Amino acid sequence: MPASLPGPTVGVVGGGQLGRMLGEAAAPLGIELVVLDPTPDAPAAQVATDQLVADFDDADAIRDLAERSDFLTFEIELADQERLDEVSEATGVPCHPDPATLALIHDKLHQKAALAEAGIPVPPFRRVDDADDLRAALDELGTPAMLKARTGGYDGRGNVPVESVDDAESAMDAVGGPAMVEAFVDYEREISVVAAQGDGEVSTFPVGENIHEEEILREMVVPSHSPEAVLEEAEQVGRDVLDLLDGRGVFAIELFEAADGRILVNEIAPRPHNSGHWSIEGAHTSQFEQHLRAVVGWPLGATDLRAPTVTKNVLADGDGSRPARVDGVEEPLATPGANLHWYGKREARPLRKMGHVTQVATDDESRAELLASARSLVDGLSFE
Amino acid sequence: MPASLPGPTVGVVGGGQLGRMLGEAAAPLGIELVVLDPTPDAPAAQVATDQLVADFDDADAIRDLAERSDFLTFEIELADQERLDEVSEATGVPCHPDPATLALIHDKLHQKAALAEAGIPVPPFRRVDDADDLRAALDELGTPAMLKARTGGYDGRGNVPVESVDDAESAMDAVGGPAMVEAFVDYEREISVVAAQGDGEVSTFPVGENIHEEEILREMVVPSHSPEAVLEEAEQVGRDVLDLLDGRGVFAIELFEAADGRILVNEIAPRPHNSGHWSIEGAHTSQFEQHLRAVVGWPLGATDLRAPTVTKNVLADGDGSRPARVDGVEEPLATPGANLHWYGKREARPLRKMGHVTQVATDDESRAELLASARSLVDGLSFE
Asked: What are the protein's GO molecular function terms (chains A, B) (predicted)?
């Protein structure tokens, strides 16, 4: 598609940190961003042209957003597929990715079933509506296993490890609704591929290694330490997943690299993702710029690694909600190759993602050295 | 100074492309920007928290700006030194750099005299109030020479080359006011050092080579092709200039590298400068982030080169003023290592700076190859 400047206006459902980093990427490209988010002064509002303060499923507000935009997209899975479809149809403003991908991904059981049906490798899984279902499934899949709420889970919420059949009742109570259970994968590491579907072209970022703790993604190491064959296979799986999804945009495909070298899809996010934040400094094009290019139909950018890179999330600690304030920022500011990213959230809550630090190699530092630096820098931050 | 997040709010006098790129750099750091500019919807307004629409010397507006800010700075020499001094004094909101630097730099004769007095090498110059003065000066300095308006010139406006003593009258008419004349320097190349004065520390960026045409800076090549001794001398001159100036911030020092290897200061800008735009992709810290760090008293960032880099300005062509619209953007978007920067100006006017393209090395491209690429990409753009 012919590209001209000034660029188009993109309406984004969701105005959190992903929207903020989309806004940071939009300005140099001459793309304007308008975001819709129910929280006034949302993180993205501070860099977007404007914010509409409204719920994610507010049909009138989504229509207002469309009328101010040349393209619609979303940065949160809570975006409402039906409203987006209706508004896009009524206004003629295209939405990328296709809202249908939200429906596919929203329900983890549907997501896994669609992947399996397309021949994409996933861990064995079963639908689970009650404790009897779960016990039957565990008989087949073995224990331990992971019980997952079909909808609404994120950052580990809605995921309940099940150690034995005896835990079936309590696990079902904990997950609290329609669920699926997945066989435990004996994995070497968790990795992810961030991939973009553009206008007739596909591009993938170098494969990153993800380090979780308490089910929350904490650290990303790029490139992953995986063997070359695994990296190639992961990239191919990423491309296969894109074939299955409709519409343009960036998708993150989280994978298990099994101990036996197999690649299994864990989850898909139909948007830029925490596991791709490293790309802001580590790649020639960031995942946020890439998403915007894809959504508006511009050529995709080069995704080569600029240098080995580690990103570590800054999570709030302490109890309860309080105004966000972090001390100890001198060290990350003064460390060569360290890059601070603050999301502009007004309130800190335990384990809330408040920002991240990316440590990029400036010399010939090993990935272990980069990780040690990022850990030391983030550990030195303190929430008041 | 202890640094904490969220960062401070910086009030910026001026809201052009420099303010816009300051805003792009501010968001990840958790720094908020408020800009003051007489043009509604100025380039910086699109990324700043807010814009005050007012003249640069509007005392009430500058006071409003200060009251919303923790620090004041400026991105345009038209900022009013006296107003800034008064407001900073009255409100206790510090202004960096010290507004006195504006007075020093505003008048090119004062600037050169101060540099000469400090022992910093400059081309021979004379004060020129009328054609008789000019003829007398040319007798001493020889021809050709450069007649410069003492105040108000930029992008070559106010600079009049004088080929012979016979041109004295017409040159004085062209420059139209108090002036100075400088001996012609037989230079090998024009180079510049972007340097930052932080809170007790000084940092310089790698020396860049500047290619002018019709007195307008068109292209920057980094690092400069200068011999190593010249690069070291240029950096030292940059540090000497910072010693002379008060207050924190980024300064650009434009230099002549004379054919005999001497370094002579051409001009100083007390702010981020066109010759430092390459640093956004080419250095670990951009000049805009560095300016913000310096102004708020945070540690300065690493300025090492990430890769050889060339930047070429995108200047509007054609006649008269018209809505800004550029076609042919596919190529820069699709070229690996090319980065598009659009300033968001609503109107195109001949030779107005509308954006720039930075070509960073992705492999082992030579600087000549990078320059050829940047030229080809910018030549392929067309203003409607």
From this structure: 5-(carboxyamino)imidazole ribonucleotide synthase activity; ATP binding; metal ion binding; phosphoribosylaminoimidazole carboxylase activity
